[in-house]
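Two folds, back to back.
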Amino acid sequence: SLLDRKTVILNLEYVPNETRRFVDFLSGVAYALNGQVKKIAVHTFLIIPGGLDVSGDIFDDIESELNF
């Protein structure tokens, strides 16, 4: 989906032991695609491919609360 320039929401709530590995891998994928990863909840991430921009007050609020 990321290669097709689609934004992906990844919920890792039920795999807390492997969360860091998933995030590290997908951060590398996003980086290779000039994209970004945003934490939107405790175990939920938004992976945005390059060329797309997602913004809004909710991201600022979440990032300040989670200190990601």
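---
second:
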Amino acid sequence: MDILDFREYVLSFEEVEETTPFDDSTLVYKVAGKWFVVVDMDDFTHIVVHHSPDVGVALRDKYAQITSAWHFNKRYWSDVSVVGDLPESVVRLLIKESYIFTIHHNVTPKALRERLLSEIE
């Protein structure tokens, strides 16, 4: 997966916005205004995903390429290496699960949350 494939995949989800709140290279993707994935497009070696605390522990135990995210709440955010042995299908799944988790736990109003969840394939 390269940065263009990554961007295309993330932007394919409903209500996703690409922002650069920090600098010109750090991309923050939001669903309905809430962060769910972060990446540095100049150094596309890892992404940061949002998840439940239990999922984070399980991911870090299962994959050496997944660690606690630097400068984020380590209970809810993990750093995922996109270079090396981690299959692209796993990276895509983690992005999608981050999107779904963020909708479930952070998106209001309820009608928007329910609409977004009903549109996920």
